[in-house]
Amino acid sequence: MGKILIVDDNEINLKLFEAILKKVGYDYVIAKNGIEAVEVAVKEKPSLVLMDIQMPTMDGEKAFHFIREKEETADIPIVAITSYALNEDRKRLIAAGFDGYLSKPISVEDFLNEIRKFCR
User: pTM of the predicted model, to two decimals?
Assistant: First the structure.
């Protein structure tokens, strides 16, 4: 099934994502900002990254580019999870190369469906 990297600076969001992933049996690791996301992605080589966009230290878009630039992590699917909920935001993030998009607040069904696209 593979490991999922959850990247979010909000503790409430992290607890929600963890609870959902635990309930359905996914293995996961956590990063709380973009810098940690890059470090954890290189170390753990997850099957999927769920990336918050608005974060301190390094935002999700910058972290996305750093992960994609590294040979060992370039092929990892990365799904943007963001409060940017406008259709233009979705189009912009997908055009930038994100493999998927979820808007906050998340729907549990949409969250799991997006994960299942990449982790079987």
Answer: 0.95
